[in-house]
Write a sequence for this structure.
């Protein structure tokens, strides 16, 4: 145990990108054997700072030392040799190789037989086995990586870092795609690592987690250091206010709306894909926020995408305002004033190389081009920019300008721009799939306010979310799905962590009738 | 101070292509001062005209995130079709002896129609049948060439190079209005139209969105199938018209016309800043891309550099131009 | 595991295929006589005459370097016409699309089909001997058409080997001689007065046999006539293409407008492209703005240009004569007759051993009206 000794020191780091000062004189010191949280809103400079520590970026100013020795980190390889490893948000294992080959890639042990180097599978297997045993991980080193879950892939990365003799492991949002129990496993392993003297830099937006598992917290805001504190001196509100730079007492806006009459009715909807959802029925009222909960594989996304016409349905009907509608593609959904903010921001949301303005007007331009052409065929840029600017302002999207390519915005601002795209259509039904995933607290609050604003106007919102507090804090009712079946719909009063978790992991005939009973409310 | 240097670098990056072109012109002009003359400019513009049409067609395809290898052979097919319909009644070796002299609009329309037809087939294969664009258009390239050879070999022509065009048709390629070649006027007008379509119409913007992220475009209510069909049809029509002008410009046509024009066009587009991944491309960029190639072609012949060296220089410039261009986006990510 | 199994399966399939094809190749020993007998129905079955197949029908596989080439296309069409009209020899042909690899595949294809005659319009002049050896091995007749001829050694090894070709060098010489004559008769043709003939040379494809001899022998003829020459623009490769030639000459004209005295093009298409560029540059407008342009092939458009007074000369390589000569060689050998100048009996064709030569003839403003051929002429 070498707790107390500084293993990584970053002093007066500055880094600029074209037009942006990403880091301005930021210092960070990490003690061995501790978990150090690095917090801040999106675009605060957390990732940039860590990329400097991992050798992906070169700081313009400042120096980095490891165990008191000033080092140069021209590339990640050098960083790993010096003992700094990074577990990225998006993992890139070599899917066609097995577990141990992924861990030892580039350094496979070999033996020499008849002058030829042969991979020493046996030694590799033993070494891997030992590493796993040390950390209490139960994976077969010979398993194919393509068969592993996301959380196991992450563990693989951690083991790889350990195998390099890492002194500092940077974890970027490690729990963003893990279930609760998977997260618990990760925390247990973090404990073991710190007990061995390894320092963890933990980047996360989940404040509860940070309070639970970290020893120290450093907060960045707009590329500048706000400060570092021992975690025990902080609580949720103080962290939030340090991050956003103002006092924040509420994480959710006050909900004052009251649902009206039934607007959308989904009746016995079954997916054309036999492995997807089956016989789902629910209703949605005007001015209502319907939360949709469930675990990975509950087919929530598939259900919503089917309602939006992105996926085919085998049977069932959809009624809007009492009228049966047939929706075969997104165009028809949009014509029926349905909007879908998809889960995969990069894959199905942004058009990365187009400008922020272009991205905002994209859907409305196609659906109502007369608005921008004035019926004359040629686009009027003034009206497009006006619309886009309106949402940049009202959603406080942080961007250098409308012409900036959207790929250069932070994730939260991209999400807000996409929300603007759909708001511009003035939809009656807004379906949001994990709308706040990977978004900082301030932006989350703004998105919640926007939802409230919509339902105030008598529009409906459906929100798929895997975050319990969000489901409970924002929804009028929570619909819970499990493995393609609707397992229950809970009213605001009935909603609780345990109830949602219970429904998310089971579906039975009894619960189903309960569902129908609830539907009648 | 620091900021100023920074901008200079950015300026160099952003205008690298134009600066390279300027540099080439300066070097050639130093070797042979006669290069800076109206005549040279007129020649280069004339030679670029048909190439620009092909490159613009290609730009639509690349911006929409697709690929098209059929361009060159469609130019050849359209050249032969339009040429066969544009002959004088008195020409001895007429392709269609049974027809009289046709109005000049007939060969023009026929060439555009031929291009459109190929475009429809390409679009259908790519957007509906989901054949990878590279393969579908390679197939169409062969079909277009095969059909061209069959047509060209039809009795009584029997693969004789076409000739004896009526004056009005030949004028399209060789005539001038107030000293400006008609070809250049046509090419510029089409550039203008394409530029307007691309930047000032919903269709144009939807093509960008489709190329940039087809899934996002689909979710946003864009009819991706329709966009791809239209894109291929526009491209086909442009190839077809280019073929017609090529026939008019050279006063002849054979089935070997247009060979590998599509590769030149793709190279021009990429050099002109189009992203091979789709979603990025501008008309001025493509014009610059085409011009740079023709300046090199023309300039190096102009100073009497041997063809072998021309290939080397051309290849180097493609690589250098793209390498610099890529820097624009690198580093930010 | 799956992959390995698949790979294995593939190998097995390929092995099976190879076995089948080699089996086919061994068959011919028995098959051809059967076929010949069946189809010809000629001599009685018991007849033991060894010459029986000679009088019968035969199959010829013709490999042309490029169908898109005007000259080839004409020769090809004529040969097909003659074959159809006569019926003794069935002609099938293939296009090498100007690619050595394709040519090799086409040849092998015909060997596999067991053709009696392989007619090769060879691109790969570097591998003539190897090809001759292969033909010898296959045992069929080999006719090299309109290309570099095999060596004496090759002919000595195989008496079923022939070559039918125009005297390629003549095409260059015709251009050079016509230009020399014009130069001597028109002192004003030296436009910059430097006493040298400043010429632009438009090449077809680099290393192509015709391109090489045409450029070489045209300049040779000029020098032989005692004219000093100067090349402008170096080696200009215009791919036998009218459009490319037009562009290249336009660029040269912008710089050397006052210097260029003549254009020598290795085919008519390029010559016509040059004329188009010259017209745009203000030439051919009146009597004092003439520039001699020479071509080869005497295509319809080329002859038209000569009539129009733009092109000086074109060397006619008569595709109909070529086709007739090829067919005649096959016909004679099929009949078991000897191939000589007399038996071939075609205008402008003479025979040296197994080499059949066809003369090029100059086409100029005086004889252009007679310089026609008819690809539907099937008399041989």
């Amino acid at each position: 145990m070498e707790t107390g000794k500084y293993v990584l020191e970053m002093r007066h780091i500055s880094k600029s990108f074209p037009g942006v000062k990403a880091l301005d004189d930021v210092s960070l010191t990490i003690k061995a054997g501790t978990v150090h949280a690095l917090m801040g809103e999106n675009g605060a400079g957390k990732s940039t700072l860590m990329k400097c520590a991992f050798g992906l970026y070169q700081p313009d100013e400042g120096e980095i030392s490891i165990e008191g020795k000033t080092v140069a980190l021209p590339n990640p390889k050098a960083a790993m040799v010096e003992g700094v490893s990074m577990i990225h948000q998006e993992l890139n294992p070599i899917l066609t190789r097995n577990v141990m080959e992924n861990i030892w890639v580039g350094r496979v042990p070999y033996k020499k037989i008849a002058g030829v180097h042969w991979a020493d599978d046996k030694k590799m297997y033993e070494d891997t086995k030992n590493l796993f045993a040390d950390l209490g991980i139960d994976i077969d080193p010979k398993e194919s990586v393509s068969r592993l879950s996301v959380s196991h892939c992450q563990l693989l990365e951690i083991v790889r870092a350990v195998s390099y003799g890492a002194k500092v492991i940077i974890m970027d949002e490690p729990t963003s795609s893990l279930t609760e129990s998977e997260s618990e496993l990760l925390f247990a392993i973090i404990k073991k690592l710190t007990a061995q003297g390894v320092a963890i830099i933990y980047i996360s937006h989940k404040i509860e987690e940070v309070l639970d598992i970290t020893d120290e917290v450093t907060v960045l805001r707009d590329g500048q250091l706000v400060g570092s504190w021992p975690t025990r001196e902080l609580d949720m509100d103080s962290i939030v206010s340090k991050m956003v730079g103002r006092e924040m007492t509420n994480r959710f806006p006050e909900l004052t709306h009251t649902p009206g009459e039934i607007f959308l009715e989904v009746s016995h909807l079954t997916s054309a894909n036999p492995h997807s959802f089956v016989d789902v029925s629910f209703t949605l009222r005007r001015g209502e926020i319907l939360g949709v909960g469930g675990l990975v594989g509950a087919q929530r996304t598939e259900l919503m995408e089917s309602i939006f016409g992105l996926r085919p349905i085998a049977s069932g009907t959809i009624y809007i305002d009492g009228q049966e509608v047939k929706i075969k593609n997104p165009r028809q959904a949009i014509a029926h004033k349905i909007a879908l903010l998809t889960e995969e921001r990069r894959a199905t949301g942004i058009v990365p190389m187009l400008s922020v303005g272009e991205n905002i007007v994209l859907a409305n331009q196609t659906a109502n081009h007369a608005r921008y052409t004035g019926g004359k065929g040629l686009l009027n840029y003034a009206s497009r920019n006006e619309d886009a600017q309106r949402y940049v302002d009202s959603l406080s999207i942080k961007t250098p300008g409308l012409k900036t390519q959207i790929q250069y915005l932070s994730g939260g601002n991209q999400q807000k721009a996409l929300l603007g795209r759909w708001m511009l259509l003035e939809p009656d039904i807004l379906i949001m799939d994990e709308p706040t995933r990977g978004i900082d607290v301030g932006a989350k609050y703004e998105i919640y306010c926007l939802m409230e604003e919509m339902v105030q106007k008598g529009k409906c919102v459906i929100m798929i979310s895997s975050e319990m507090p969000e489901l409970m804090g924002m929804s009028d009712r929570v619909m819970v799905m499990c493995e393609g079946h609707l397992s229950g719909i809970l009213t605001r009063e009935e909603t609780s962590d345990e109830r949602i978790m219970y429904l998310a992991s089971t579906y039975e005939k009894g619960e189903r009738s309960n569902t129908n009973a609830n539907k009648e409310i | 101070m620091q900021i100023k240097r920074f901008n200079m670098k950015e300026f160099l990056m952003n205008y690298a292509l134009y600066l390279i072109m300027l540099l080439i012109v300066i070097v050639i002009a130093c070797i042979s001062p006669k290069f800076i003359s109206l005549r040279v400019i007129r020649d280069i513009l004339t030679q670029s005209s048909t190439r620009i049409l092909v490159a613009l067609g290609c730009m639509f395809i690349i911006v929409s995130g697709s690929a098209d290898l059929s361009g060159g052979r469609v130019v050849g097919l359209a050249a032969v079709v339009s040429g066969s319909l544009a002959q004088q009644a008195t020409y001895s070796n007429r392709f269609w002896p049974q027809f009289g002299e046709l109005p000049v609009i007939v060969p023009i329309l026929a060439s555009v129609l031929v291009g459109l037809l190929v475009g429809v087939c390409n679009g259908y294969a790519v957007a509906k049948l989901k054949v990878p664009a590279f393969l579908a258009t390679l197939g169409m390239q062969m079909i277009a060439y095969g059909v061209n050879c069959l047509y060209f070999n039809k009795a009584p022509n029997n693969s004789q190079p076409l000739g004896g065009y009526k004056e009005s048709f030949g004028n399209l390629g060789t005539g001038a209005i107030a000293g400006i070649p008609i070809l250049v006027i046509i090419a510029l007008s089409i550039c203008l139209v394409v530029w307007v379509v691309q930047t000032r119409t919903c269709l144009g913007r939807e093509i960008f969105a489709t190329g940039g992220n087809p899934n996002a475009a689909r979710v946003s209510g864009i009819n991706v199938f329709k966009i791809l069909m239209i894109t291929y049809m526009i491209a086909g029509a442009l190839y077809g018209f280019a073929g017609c002008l090529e026939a008019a410009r050279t006063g002849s046509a054979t089935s070997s016309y247009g060979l590998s024009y599509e590769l030149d066009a793709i190279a021009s587009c990429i050099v002109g800043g189009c992203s091979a991944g789709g979603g990025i491309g501008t008309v001025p960029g493509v014009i610059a891309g085409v011009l740079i190639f023709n300046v090199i072609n023309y300039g190096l012949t102009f100073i009497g550099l041997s063809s072998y060296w021309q290939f080397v220089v051309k290849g180097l410039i493609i690589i250098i131009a793209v390498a610099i261009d890529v820097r624009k986006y690198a580093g930010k990510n | 595991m799956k992959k390995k199994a698949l790979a294995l399966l593939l190998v097995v399939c390929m092995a099976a295929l190879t076995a089948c094809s080699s089996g086919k190749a061994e068959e011919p020993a028995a098959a051809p006589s059967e076929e010949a007998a069946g189809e010809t129905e000629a001599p009685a079955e018991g007849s033991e005459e060894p010459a029986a197949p000679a009088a019968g029908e035969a199959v010829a596989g013709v490999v042309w370097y490029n169908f898109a080439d005007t000259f080839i296309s004409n020769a090809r069409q004529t040969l097909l016409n003659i074959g159809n009209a006569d019926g003794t020899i069935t002609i099938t042909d293939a296009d090498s699309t100007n690619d050595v690899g394709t040519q090799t595949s086409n040849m092998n294809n015909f060997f596999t089909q067991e053709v009696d005659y392989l007619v090769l319009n060879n691109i790969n002049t570097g591998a003539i001997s190897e090809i001759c050896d292969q033909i010898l091995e296959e045992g069929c007749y080999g006719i090299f058409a309109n290309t570099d001829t095999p060596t004496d050694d090759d002919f000595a090894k195989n008496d079923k080997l022939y070559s039918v070709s125009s005297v390629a060098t003549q095409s260059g010489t015709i251009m050079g001689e016509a230009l020399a004559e014009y130069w001597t008769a028109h002192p004003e043709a030296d436009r910059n007065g430097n006493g040298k003939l400043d010429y632009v040379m438009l090449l077809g494809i680099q290393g192509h046999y015709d391109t090489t001899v045409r450029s070489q022998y045209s300049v040779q003829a000029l020098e032989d006539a005692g004219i000093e020459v100067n090349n402008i623009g170096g080696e200009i490769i215009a791919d036998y293409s009218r459009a490319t030639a037009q562009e290249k000459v336009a660029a040269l004209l912008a710089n050397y407008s006052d210097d260029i005295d003549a254009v020598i093009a290795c085919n008519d298409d390029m010559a016509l492209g040059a004329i188009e560029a010259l017209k745009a540059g203000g030439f051919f407008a009146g009597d004092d703005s003439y520039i001699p342009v020479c071509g080869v092939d005497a295509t319809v458009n080329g002859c038209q240009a000569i009539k129009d007074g733009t092109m000086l000369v074109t060397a006619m390589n008569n595709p109909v004569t070529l086709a007739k000569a090829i067919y005649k060689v096959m016909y004679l050998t099929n009949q078991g007759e000897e191939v000589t100048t007399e038996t071939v009996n075609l205008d402008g064709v003479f025979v040296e051993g197994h080499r059949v030569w066809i003369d090029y003839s100059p086409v100029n403003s005086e004889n252009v009206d007679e310089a026609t051929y008819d690809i539907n002429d099937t008399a041989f």
Remarks:
- Residues 169-316 of chain C form a domain with the Rossmann fold fold (CATH 3.40.50.2300).
- Chains C and A do not touch (no CB pair under 8 Å).
- The first helix of chain C runs from residue 2 to 26.
